Amino acid sequence: MVEQKKYCLFLATLDSEFVKKTYGGYHNVFVSTFGDEGEHWDSFRVVEGEFPDEKDLEKYDGFVISGSSHDAFESHDWILKLCDIVKKLDEMKKKILGICFGHQIIARVRGGTVGRAKKGPELKLGDITIVKDAIKPGSYFGNEIPSSMAIIKCHQDEVLVLPESAKVLAYSDNYEVEMFSIEDHLFCIQGHPEYNKEILTEIVDRVHGLGYIKQDFADASKATLENRGADRKLWEMVCKNFLKGRVPTN
Length: 250
Hints:
Blueprint: E1 6-10, H1 17-23, H2 26-34, E2 40-44, E3 62-65, H3 77-91, E4 95-99, H4 101-109, E5 113-116, E6 122-130, E7 148-155, E8 157-161, E9 166-171, E10 179-182, E11 186-189, H5 197-209, H6 215-223, H7 232-244
């Protein structure tokens, strides 16, 4: 009998009312994007101080760290604890997929620098340019490595200085580090492969309603979604291949 694969999701965000009502929570958003039938996925709400026992880390085949409204450079107890756990997982060579805040946490743990984005926040669908030379054909990107990928962006911080030994896999007009990897077990993405148009639109409306962004910024964000979507299927394939150690056949 094949042993059931187990994955662990560190949720660094609370569920919005919209996500709860529409998807039953972010756990379901992530598992529907990165999970496959027959797998077991646990999630821990690290933003509320909920973590797995360290002795249980070994049983997981891979980990995902979500985005957050918190800054990855803060010193809240839960962020420091998350950094400790990431350090242990790194030593264990466990696969970790870091998304947005998670991407920045991994950079921080590995000695990089994270701070406010020099060119300001982003809330939009945008294109990132893939550094083809940094990606081996036959890796989790498959043999057909795209020259760019569309992804939903939702952040105000960025990786300012990469950790030593990190490889930049993608950049954009505004950000030098859109995606990076370290060895074969850490894969980090500044954008949100798990987000769709509805999730971003609701976030834009919510932060606009709270007065965090102006009307013209909100309108510009929504305009990016008008005529196209993110490369969700491609992101799904790449992230699943990474987490599951698959070599794609495309």
